[in-house]
Amino acid sequence: QVQLVESGGGLVQAGGSLRLACAASGRTFSSFGMGWFRQAPGKEREFVAAVSRSGTTKLYADSVKGRFTISRDNTKNTVYLQMNTLKPEDTAVYFCAATGNTRVVISTAPLYDYWGQGTQVTVSS
Predict the structure, then answer these.
(1) Residues 6+ positions from 94 with CB-CB distance below 8 Å
(2) Which pLDDT score is estimated for 67?
(3) Which of 6, 31, 35, 75 has a CA-to-CA distance to 112 between 20 and 30 Å?
(4) What is the mean predicted confidence (pLDDT) over 58-77?
(5) Cα(32)–Cα(52) distance, rounded to whole angstroms?
(6) Interatomic CA distance for residues 34 and 30, integer angstroms
(7) Which residues contact 99 (CB under 8 A, 6 or more apart)?
(8) Which residue, 52, 55, 103, is CA-closest to 75?
(9) What span, in angstroms and rounded, lies between the C-alpha atoms of 97 and 122?
(10) CA-CA distance, 24 to 44, in Å (whole number)?
(11) Residue 1 confidence (pLDDT) above 90
(12) Alpha-carbon gap, residue 107 to 51, rounded angstroms
């Protein structure tokens, strides 16, 4: 089992920045690929970013490329999502997830094994 707890969400004006963190406990953190997803009201959960076990390979959704950065610190069992130049359409609940799948990076939600409870991000215009 892996427990994931997100933090860092909040209310920010358009153009601002937030840094989300996801702390993991349980099994060896470095054996899991990690991802961030988000879900806006009335919409399906969508992929945001993923990072490989080592942290060297990263994948981003087109909608956040160039604005968001995913990173991980395996010594702290934590994955981060730095969000810059935020837009109102970034408003959503953000979830981190862990996968034991052997693919380097994964953008498909059903392939993730563990999920956090989510943290709300609200971007005002």
Answers:
(1) 6, 9, 20, 36, 37, 38, 48, 81, 118, 119, 120, 121
(2) 98
(3) 75
(4) 97
(5) 8
(6) 9
(7) 32, 33, 34, 35, 106, 111, 112, 113, 114
(8) 55
(9) 20
(10) 25
(11) no
(12) 10
Nearest to 122, CA basis, from 7, 10, 6: 10
CA distances from residue 54 to 39, 62, 94 in whole angstroms, order as listed? 27, 23, 22
What burial letters (b/e) apply to 89-106, b meaning 16+ CB within 10 Å?
Answer: ebbbbbbbbbbeeeeebb
Amino acid of residue 61: A
Q: Side chain identity at 8, as an amino acid letter?
A: G
Written as six digits, the tokens of 43 are 């919409």
